[in-house]
Amino acid sequence: MRENRYLLLRRRAAPGLRVERMDRIVIVGLNHKTAPIDIREKFAAVCGDGTSQLQDLAQFQPIKEVFQVSTCNRMEVLFTTPNLDQGIGAVVGFLAGIYGQTGAALKPYLYTYIDQDAVKHLFRVACSLDSMVVGEPQILGQIKQAYRQAVEARASGVILNRLLHKAFSVAKLVRTETRIGRSAVSISYAAVELAKKIFNNLTGKTVLLIGAGEMAELAAEHLLNNSVERIVVANRTLERAVALAKRFRGTSVPLEEVVEELSRSDIIISSTGSPTPILTADEVKRRMRSRRNRPLFFIDIAVPRDIDPEVNRIQNVYLYNIDDLQGIVDLNRTDRLREAGRAEHIIAAQALKFESWLRTLEVVPTIVALREKAEQIRQGELKKTFGHLEPLPEDLAASLHLLTQSIVNKVLHDPILFLKRTSTKARKEFYLDTARQMFNLDSDEPEAQGEEDVSLDSREAT
To answer: How far apart are CA 296 and CA 317, in angstroms?
Structure first.
């Protein structure tokens, strides 16, 4: 009975605070481990505008705060809800709507993490322990961008704001305290390593980069380190292609001239954000005649895919997509796994700290109510005192304000510290209820000061 009364009082005491004691933290999503590329690319194509998706998600009644991250290898929805079944059902239904199937058809590809498991999973993703290439740095930037969209859409609140900022700090801590970033390889690096295995070495080869984004930039750095003869950059925005080509001592061409470049290229690495294929099987087949059937290798690291999968059926043409790179990422495997183990220890410790903070939210309304009541009393007593005095100089009035504020803060220090410490105790509801009764925080009646003298003189105290 006491617990039910306490919950009702909490809601009444701090109506502006959107955190309820029973809110749960949940992640529902899919990634390269649970879903094949044809499913992932459908989500990547539809979920390009994260803000609009967040606005749709926020309409579901059981969801209070929500954050969504969508990359080429994962689609995850992080949210808080007071009702697990309804909240998870709403998000699964939302994802199924994007997929174009029923929730039952999509469920085999989905995973769900709740509360502490959700916190740890988010930290692992931010630290790139859950990436196709352990230690790659791109995912953290993608999460930060997704968080900016959530803030702009006003979809995140007290819990998710704190949780995501904590994820950023944990990722920084892991990179500082471990060598996981130094021994890791990016997707672009893995693509270049695959090209080296195909040709034995890349000396004298011509590489065509389709797309001038971060993936292409990283690939160009690795290619230069492996003595390629020529780098050609094609991009929808010619200015970006020119800038990247200049940086890496290459040349640039408009995206429309990519087909012509096939005759002069040995390796094509494609990483655009196009929703449809950049190159079709027929276009490639026609160019193979002018190449006199010299081998042509495509490495398609885009999701959705840039290269028509039928290209792989053409003689002397070899096509690899992002899933094919999985075998390459075992470079430095032993070192990465050792560092990943150290990172997991850091994540577990930081997840416990976040859980401890989360528990303190239960005492926040009581602390806020206590401070507000003390401030009202302070202001009322000062107003009454000033009313009995001649007008005071401004500096003296300000000094009295500071004095009374200091007294209130010192008097409240120990009670507030006690309340914060009770947040981790089994009987915290009892302590909070007692504190609210002791300070009369839940009375609907205005305080009748002066009607009852509760002061003690020295004789009564003894």
So the answer is: 5
Calculated CA dihedral for residues 170, 171, 176, 177, nearest 10 degrees:
60
What residues have CB less than 8 Å from 27, skipping those under 6 apart? 76, 77, 78, 111, 112, 113, 118, 121, 122
How far apart CA 219 and CA 186 sit, in angstroms, is 9
Q: Which of 54, 72, 150, 167 is catalytic?
A: 72
Q: Which domains does the chain have, with CATH numbers?
A: 12-183+335-360 (3.30.460.30), 187-330 (3.40.50.720), 363-444 (no CATH)
Cα-based angle 21, 360, 155 (whole degrees, multiple of 5) = 60
What the block records as the tokens of 194 is 């695959």
The answer to whether 103 and 196 have CB atoms below 8 angstroms apart is no
Contact 22, 82 (CB under 8 A): yes
Residues 289-312 pLDDT 10s: 888 778 899 999 888 899 999 999
- Listed residue (329, 410, 294) closest to 131, CA to CA: 329
DSSP assignment string, 59-105: TSTT--EEEEEE-SSEEEEEEEES-HHHHHHHHHHHHHHHHTS-HHH
In the residue annotation, 72 being an active-site residue is answered as yes
Integer CA distances (angstroms), 308 to 283, 288, 312, 321, in order: 10, 15, 8, 11
Q: Mind listing the pLDDT tens digit for each residue in 88-138?
A: 999 999 899 887 777 788 999 999 999 999 999 999 999 999 988 777 778
Whether the full predicted model's pTM is greater than 0.70, yes or no, is: no
**CA distance linking residue 135 with residue 180, whole number of Å:** 5
Q: Give CA angle at 367 (362, 373), nearest 5°.
A: 140
- The torsion defined by the Cα of 257, 260, 263 and 265, in degrees rounded to 10, comes to 0
CB atoms within 10 A of CB 460: 7
Q: What is the DSSP letter of 111?
A: E
What is the DSSP track for 296-331? EEEEE--SS-SB-GGGGGSTTEEEEEGGGGGGGGGT
Tally the residues of the chain.
462
Q: Is 175 helix (H, G, I), strand (E, B) or coil?
A: helix
